[in-house]
Every structure is written in structure tokens, then in C-alpha cells.
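Write out the 3D structure for:
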Amino acid sequence: MRATRKSLALTLGVATVLAVAACAPSTGGGGTESTSEPGGSTAEATEGGGEPINIGIITSTTGPLAAYGKTFVDGFEAGLDYATDGTGEVNGSPLEVTFEDDGGDTDRAVTLARDLIGQGYTILGGTASSGIALSLAEQAEQNKVLYVSGPAASDAITGINDYTFRSGRQSLQDVATAGSFVDVEGQQVLVFAQDNAFGQGNLAAVQAVLGAKGAEVTSVMVPEDVTEFTPFAAQVLDAAPTMVFVAWAGATSGAMWQALDQQGVLDDITVVTGLGDASTFGAYGAASDKIDFLNHYFPGAADNEINTAMIEYVEAAGGTPDLFTPDGFTAAQMIVRAIEEAGGADDVDAMIAALEGWSFEGPKGSYTIRESDHALIQPMFQVRLVSDGNGGWTPELVSTAAAEDVAPPEAG
């Protein structure tokens, strides 16, 4: 694999670029080196090998989602190394990867995608932003190219068109995992969330998934400008639900969790929320060991050879495996599969057919790409935070939720 970073910000740092370059697998054909200068071409011929195959990865390496983009790229490079047995080639053709920084901006991402497509790229991947992913999916359909979305969790990506796949989980899988903590049939599940699009979206997902399993779904929706959460915590106690599903983001998280803890909500009720990346582990304060966490991934979640290989590769390159590292790894596996089975990247319909219905082993365990809507069926995890003995918290696996048990409803 030859990787070139066009338009990447210098704030990534020389050390990161060197680490990635040092661990890029050999092309195995004695070919020329690709350029890493801005605007450089990746379509260079190799000595004694097939024509290079171009892959464009658009994700955030600057902006609010930069950390997610970094772990996705780390995982992607590890996945290409694994899927090509360290050669960086498929059927004798070297894979030329161009990484582009969307900066969290949809218009910029669309412009980058159009530029890559204009250069003849038929494979695109990446992005952690749901809004950007949806726009890239539109570009994929309009231009008839393969698009493998990254960590973006919007359910609307699933089934959006024939050209779009996903390499991560979606929100409905999070909600289904929350339901695995208790038998929700006939029980009251209360959604505690901010009264905004994010909170309302989570409420709708809980109603759709857990409501369909027989739960009575209620809610306490908190205005975004509230800073005193005691009255809302009291409402939760008064409702006496079997389970509380918390959907929260932003600077008020610490105060919110403190209020739930002080009012005794965490002592008397099963409270479930999603565990994010490692930077969030300290956000729950003293409430940490009282919360049940659903989880997409942490390095100790899965015990298999592929997960071990991914972790070792990323750490050797100077990175740290985290929440979205497996999404990059899985994206690489999918792209290699598509190219391999289609005999190259020219026949997009053949690449699509190669992915539909495909079952494979990945960092989290067994995955299946559902043929009808391209949902990625995968295991999820129940996790708790435990003290690391140094004043911090570390995740510990409680249980694995089987892929079929947390599969999202089929997209219409």
C-alpha cells in the first residue's frame, strides 16, 4: 500500500507521518515511491506489477472529529496490511491510498469526493460525521462509485442506495445493545436525554427497537440550556422505570451524572449509556462504577487473532487503538474483498455484488453485510468502568451481545 496525504494539516505532526510511512507494507514489486507532497499523484506505475488501484479515504484529521479520523486511519492501514498479507497488493496490483481531510465540513468533503471521482477513483471510504457520510453516499450514487462509510452512526446511511456500505455500527445497534441489559418486555424504559435533535433521535430509536420488544417507553427530556439537573433526576425517580437509557453530549455531562448519582437514581435503577472513546472515561466521575455501558469497541473487548493483529500493528506505528479503530480495519477488509472478487476496481457493480451478503471475521468477531440494505451485522459489548488504581478508569468486558441479537431492523 502506498499512502499519500493530500491536503492534510501540518498539525498532524512529523512524527505521525513518519510512523505511518514506516509501517506501510511493501509493494513487493520494487516499484517507485509515491509522493506525499500536497497535490501529488498516486497513480504511478510499478515495475513488474499490475496497474495501481486508487482508493480515496475522506475523513477528519482536523476539526472536532479529528481524533476519530486518526483512529479510523490507523485501523484502515492495519486492515490493508492484514487483508493483503503485508503486500499492499490485490491480484498483483498495488493499492494506492489517498487520505483527504474533510475538516468536519460537508461542502469540503463533497468537493474532495468530486475531485477524486474526476481523477477516475471508483472507491471512496471514510468519515465519522453522519452528515458528511450522507452527502458522500449521494455522490456515490450520482457517480456510480463504491462508498464504504466509516464510524458515522446515522441509521439513514443503511439502505440509502446500492453503492453505499458501512464499516461501523449504527445507532439502532446501540439501542438494541442497551436492551440486552434487562428483559424489557412489559417493562418501563425511560429515555433521559437533551431536548434537541440528538436526544429526540435517540428517543425515536428506543421507541422503534425496545418498544417493538414490548417495552413501555417514556422520557424525561431536558432543555439544552439547563445547568441544574436535580429536578429532572427527581422525575426519573418518581417514574420508577426498570431501565434508564441516557443519551447526552457536551459540557454539562459531568453535572448531569453527578445529579443522577446524588439523587440515588444510579443506586436503584439500571442506568445504561454508551461508552465512547478513551478520552471520555473520566467524564462520569464517582458514578463510573454504577453505570452499565453499551460499547461498540475497546481494545480488550474481543479475544481473537485479528483484534490482536490490529492492536499490534497500530501500536507498532505509534498509535493507540480506540473506539473507531476497527471501523477503519473493517473498511479495508471490505475494499480488498471487493477488488479481489471483481478482478479490479473498474466494475463497480461487481464490487457491490462481492460485498452483499458477505460474512467474514474481523476485529470484533463475526460480521455479515446484510444483502438487502447493506447493514453491517456485528457483535456489540456490555462494559463497566473499573478503577485503574491511579485515579483513572478503564473498561472491563461484562458480556458480548451476539450480532443477530442486536441487528437493526431492515431499512425500508
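The radius of gyration is 22 Å.
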